[in-house]
Design brief:
The protein is mainly α. Helix content is 68%, strand content 1%. The protein has a two-stranded antiparallel ribbon with strand order 1-2. A hairpin with a 2-residue loop joins strand 1 and strand 2 (1049-1054).
């Protein structure tokens, strides 16, 4: 840096300095710090622009390296230069200040440096803004102020009043650019300012809007209000009552720009203040609908009114005359229409509960505006309609239409009736020149068939020409073609094939051309469409007259696909889709391609050997092997099966599953090939992956039918050992268990030597008899018993060997024997065994609990096999004996498993018996009685449900709680005949939420939770009356807390805890199933109380907070400050030093859970701007223990997000 440097040297030297500063290792002593800082500040005034730019870049790394007072020197110099009269110096200094602000540590880290620097800058900036001498200085200063408030607003709390008083006058500045930047700065200010400053600002705006001095400033004030709402909607809510009438008033003033700003303000209110804007939504909708068509300077002649065209022309003369002074460039009305469309979009996206109303008023209006002449506006109109469709699409499949039981107009039926109108409007747009418009049309059609599959069946002839038009259009972009193909694909998948048969001749040429397109994305979409085109109905292969004949197109489709299939140097996605498409072609049309088949199959064989394409090829081969056309795969099998067998060794689960499915369906395999596969099976049969085991078992069952001889080698082999090990696994259940039973039955049927009934029986039950080891898990006994029963059913002549009476039998042998008896008796009538009843009743008095419950299960199951013989016996025993609990369990088994017709005659006697026991003192017994009552009610709901309702008046609280629990067992997640009856009277059962007895109220909550979870439609209409009672149960009741003396210690017991827990569980369930019917703010009040409650309830409410942060972020944001406090309290609580270990563990668990809620809250974009939240964040980062928890949870949540993105 010599005194008269050559600019190039200066440039190089600065560049070297820059490189040095960016290294972490650099350390400067005080003296060199001072020199470097002085030098760089001097270089900022260099004549050479390049050198200046580099010097500014050095500021960034410099700020974090030098001491605090040096940073202040830098800031001071930069602020002074900002006011200089040299424009270039001003510009470079303002860039410098922004760089410095950007480098400061974030407010949440609590660093002192940031605070002192910001305070210094603020003072200089406010004076620069207030002096309205030089506009460009003002603009720069405002820009930096906005930047600083955005990044470090929380540190400047003491300056907020002075910042506000210097900003407000700028809203009336003669320069619009100044106003615009002032609004930006105010927007960032309201995110972090205290309440008093906020009130001042709002009062100022309201006063000015009330005075309405001139149009230009009014526009600015409306824009400012909208900006505040966008940045801090959660704070402006309480002022909307005053603001909205003013905005409505200005909307009616004839000034297009003002109108646009007013409607934009509405949009931000709707999006950011959902609760407070609620009473005004209808006003907003009607204003938007009015301005959506606002086009004062354009006369739409309706296309339908051709006959009155003549009259219209004569009336138009006076209109023509004024055209000379008017040019289209002055026409701002399109901005008003665009704002209206966007505002409607916001309303539709945020007010799910108004869907039926939207379909009545908004939907037709939007459809009418598809003809909008201004391209940008048209795109927004389409977007608003897309939002409407997305809102209509049922969120979870099991909630497909929560109001389906309410007959009448649901949003889906209303949409269905509007489809013709939508298609008519789109039909005209599909031939438009504009690419953007056509893309919008394709998006619309795609979303429409996603919401209503099959809705376009009758309209396909109208739409196909429009789609083909875009495919053939030479000028259209590749994106448009991709959208058109994707849309066509979705329509073909969601509609019946016959609807397209007439259009195949027209569709094949353009689609084939797209398959040959050089751009791989077009090819890959076109292959998907081709795959749909070749699906011909294979159910009736006899050529009937009306059936579709594909022969003319086979050649084209085959040729274009084979070309892509052969190509090696082609995109991965295209490779895969070409394989799938060719698989479909052979599956559906293979009988018409005798010459081409062998060659194509050889290509498939090549693709099998390639790691990238093997999975797709296995799927394609499975498809071909399953084709009703009986395609002959023998030429390739000798090579293919060993390859497939080797796939079973690979560590790729999807590949194993697909390969097993393929082997299962390939019927033409020879015994040699089978042996190769069998060698690979043992490691697949294990509890570590039940689904793979299930597929392997199902393959073995198929083998037992097709190649029984090859199973002979099982007798001593590994496969059987693996099977027996799997039977003993506690994880065996569901599909894998039934595959196991099927296999045992198929195996016994092959009558292979060494694998007969007794051999297999010995293998299964051996370990229990050898007494060397009792099985570790009860589930294993049940599985073995089921296998024994399956074998017995397959060989009815071999009698089961029963070892229950044998006095030498151990408990585990008895257990197995009883369970086996039950499983056999379930399907086979065992009444021919005379001593069965006594044997089982003796087992009731066994010392082992497991044998007792096995005996009660066995009695119930055997009764199912012969009701007339055993049911009366069970009932009589219940009346007379002392072992009611076990017998009632037998009865529950009978009611759950027997056929309805078999049980009908006994319903009355069972019902009477159960009622005698529903007032039993024992809660366990009452629960079994309730389950029996509930399941019995399902058999004859018309008579029994009203009876249950009658017992609600019973004087005994036990009886009432049994009845309410019984209702829980009548609710299931599948549609049932009882549903409409239940819907009418579930309200009466839920009235027990006001019952004086604690236990009855708790049971009522559990039943309500079950309904909300499994069939929300039962309770949606009752929420208005149920919610207040539900919320009432979340409160802590002093009178239910009592002190119990335990020796020298006093211990408090809260009898209301279980009740509160049940209530909070209901609230959590309602978030998933009935969110649209909740007043989220009332809901949040109770969540807030729960955050301060007992351990269990805190854990629940932390979970709720995390759900709420993603479901309704704007509401949570409005309450953020009140929610942060209890979270902070939980995280900073200390456990007493002499507490037991559990206390420490509980507190840790609570902290982690609270931190999870904090991390979830921080996913709401504006959350960290809240002063309380940022204070809490700096508290976390300064406490090593909390910081560690916080970081680990953030890592977990970000990796979980990545995973969910992978699977979606």
């Amino acid at each position: 840096f010599s005194p008269k440097p050559d600019p190039r040297d200066a440039f190089m030297a600065t560049n070297d300095l820059m490189t040095e500063l960016q290294k972490d290792s650099i350390k400067l002593d005080d003296d060199s710090e001072r020199k470097v800082v002085r030098m760089i500040l001097k270089l900022l005034e260099d004549k050479n622009g390049e050198v200046q730019n580099l010097a500014v870049k050095c500021l960034g790394p410099l700020v974090s390296k030098v001491k605090e007072y040096q940073v202040e020197t830098i800031v001071d110099t930069l602020c002074t230069n900002m006011l200089s009269d040299k424009e270039q110096l001003r510009d470079i200094s303002s860039i410098g200040l922004k760089t410095v602000i950007g480098e400061l540590p974030p407010a949440s880290s609590g660093s002192a440096l940031a605070a002192s620097v910001c305070k210094k800058i603020t003072g200089r900036l406010t004076s620069a803004i207030a002096k309205q001498e030089d506009v460009s200085v003002q603009l720069e200063a405002l820009d930096i102020m906005a930047d600083m408030l955005c990044r470090q607003g929380g540190l400047l709390v003491n300056f907020h009043p002075s910042i506000l008083s210097c900003l407000l006058p700028q809203l009336t500045s003669p320069r619009l650019a100044v106003r615009k930047r002032t609004i930006m700065a105010l927007g960032h200010l309201v995110m972090s300012c205290g309440n008093l400053v906020f009130i001042d600002l709002i009062e100022h705006l309201l006063t000015e809007l009330g005075r309405n001095d001139n149009m230009s400033t009014t526009r600015t004030y409306i824009q400012c209000t909208a900006a505040i709402s966008r940045q801090a909607g959660h704070r402006i809510g309480e002022y909307l009552e005053k603001i909205i009438p003013l905005v409505v008033k200005f909307c009616n003033v004839d000034d297009d720009e003002l109108r646009e700003y007013c409607i934009q303000a509405f949009e931000s209110f709707v999006r950011r203040c959902p609760k407070e804007v609620y009473p005004h939504v209808s006003t907003v909708i009607s204003l938007c609908l009015r301005y959506l068509t606002y086009d004062p300077n354009y006369n739409f002649d309706d296309e339908d009114e051709d006959d009155n065209a003549m009259d219209a022309e004569q009336n138009d003369e006076d209109y023509q005359g004024s055209d000379d002074e008017y040019s289209d460039d002055d026409d701002m009305s399109w901005k008003v229409r665009r704002a209206a469309a966007k505002c409607l979009d916001a309303v539709v996206s945020t007010r799910h509960e108004m869907l039926p109303e939207f379909y009545r008023s908004v939907s037709p209006a939007l459809v009418c505006r598809f003809k909008e002449r201004e391209e940008n506006v048209k795109a927004d109109v389409f977007h608003a309609y897309l939002s409407l469709l997305k809102q209509t699409r049922p969120a979870q499949s099991w909630l497909a239409d929560p109001d389906a039981m309410e007959q009448g107009e649901t949003p889906l039926t209303m949409l269905q009736s509007q489809v013709p109108m939508i298609v008519k409007a789109l039909h005209k747009q599909l031939k438009e020149k504009s690419v953007k418009t056509r893309q919008c049309c394709f998006n619309m059609l795609t979303e429409l068939v996603n919401v209503l599959p099959g809705a376009l069946t009758t309209h396909i002839p109208v739409l196909i020409p429009g789609i083909i038009f875009s495919l053939n259009d030479k000028s259209s972009s590749s994106n448009l073609k991709i959208d058109a193909l994707a849309c066509l694909h979705v329509i073909m998948v969601t509609h019946p094939a016959h609807a397209f048969h007439a259009h195949v001749p027209a569709l094949v040429p353009p689609v084939v051309a797209c398959v040959g397109d050089p751009f791989y994305k077009i090819t890959s979409e076109a292959l998907l469409v081709t795959q749909q085109l070749v699906i011909r109905p294979l159910d009736n292969l006899s050529e009937s007259s009306d059936s579709f004949d594909p022969s003319p197109y086979i050649n084209d489709l085959f040729t274009c696909t084979i070309k892509r299939l052969k190509a090696a140097d082609i995109d991965q996605e295209v490779k895969e889709r070409a394989i799938s498409c060719m698989g479909q072609i052979i599956c559906n049309l293979g009988d018409r391609l005798p010459a081409e088949l062998p060659g194509t199959l050889l290509i498939f064989l090549e693709r099998l050997k390639n790691e990238i394409t093997r999975l797709t090829t296995v799927k394609a081969l499975t498809l071909i092997a399953g084709s009703p056309l009986k395609i002959d795969l023998r030429p390739v099998l000798p090579d293919a099966v060993p390859i497939l067998a080797s796939f079973l060794r690979k560590n790729q689960r999807a590949l194993k599953l697909c390969t097993l499915a393929a082997l299962d369906i390939l019927s033409a395999v020879t015994p040699v090939m089978v042996d190769a596969v069998l060698a690979e099976l043992p490691p697949l049969i294990s509890e570590s992956d039940m689904h793979v085991s299930q597929m392997a078992l199902s393959f073995l069952s198929t083998l037992a039918v097709t190649h029984p001889s090859s199973l002979s080698q099982l007798s001593g082999g590994n496969i059987l050992q693996q099977l027996i090990a799997l039977v003993r696994s506690p994880l065996l259940q569901g599909g894998a268990l039934s595959a196991m039973l099927d296999f045992y039955q198929a195996l016994v049927a092959t009558e292979t030597a060494g694998l007969g009934y007794m051999d297999l029986l010995r293998m299964l039950t051996g370990p229990v008899y050898s007494q060397s080891a009792s099985l570790p898990h009860k589930q294993a006994y049940c599985s073995i018993a089921k296998c024994v029963a399956a074998l017995t059913r397959a060989c009815p002549d071999e009698g089961p060997a029963v070892d229950v009476k044998n006095s030498r039998s151990t408990d585990s042998i008895r257990l197995l024997a009883l369970l086996s008896l039950g499983e056999v008796g379930h399907h086979v009538d065992l009444s021919s065994q005379p001593e069965l009843k006594t044997v089982i009743l003796d087992a009731f008095s066994s010392s082992s609990e497991e044998v007792k419950s096995a005996a009660s299960y066995a009695l119930g199951s055997i009764a199912v096999g012969n009701l007339p013989e055993y049911l009366p016996f069970v009932l009589q025993e219940i009346s007379s004996s002392k072992r009611q609990y076990l017998l009632l369990h037998s009865l529950k088994e009978i009611i759950s498993s027997a056929s309805v017709s078999g049980l009908k005659p006994y319903v009355e006697s069972v019902w009477t018996l159960l009622l005698k026991h529903c007032e039993c003192q024992e809660e366990g017994t009452r629960n079994v009685v309730a389950e029996c009552l509930g399941k019995l009610t399902l058999i004859d709901p018309e008579t029994l449900l009203p009876r249950l309702k009658g017992y609600l008046l019973s004087g005994s609280s036990y009886a009432r709680s049994s009845v309410v629990t019984a209702v829980k067992f009548t609710i299931s997640d599948q549609p049932q005949p009882i549903d409409p009856l239940l819907k009418n009277c579930i309200g009466d059962f839920l009235k027990t939420l006001e019952d004086p007895d604690l236990n009855v109220r708790r049971v009522a909550l559990v039943t309500f939770n079950s309904a909300a979870h499994n069939k929300p439609s039962l309770i949606r209409e009752l929420l208005d009356s149920v919610l207040p009672q539900l919320y009432n149960e979340t409160k802590v009741r002093k009178e239910l807390i009592r002190e119990v003396e335990m020796g020298p210690f006093k211990h408090t017991v809260d009898d209301g805890l279980d009740l509160r827990k049940a209530a909070f569980e209901c609230m959590y369930t309602l978030l998933d199933s009935c969110l649209d019917r909740l007043d989220i703010f009332t809901f949040l009040n109770h969540v807030e109380d729960g955050l301060k409650d007992h351990y269990d309830i805190k854990m629940l409410t932390f979970l709720m907070l995390a759900r709420l942060s993603s479901l309704c972020p704007s509401a949570v944001l409005q309450r953020l400050d009140r929610l942060v406090e209890p979270l902070r309290a939980t995280c900073t609580t200390k456990v007493k030093a002499n507490s037991v270990k559990q206390e420490f563990e509980k507190q840790d668990e609570l902290k982690r859970s609270a931190m999870r809620a904090v991390v979830a809250l921080l996913t709401i974009p504006e959350a960290e701007k809240s002063p309380l939240m940022s204070e809490f964040q700096s508290q976390i980062s300064s406490n090593p223990e909390l910081a560690a928890i916080f970081e680990s949870i953030q890592r977990d949540s970000s990796s979980a997000n990545m995973e969910s993105m992978d699977t979606s």
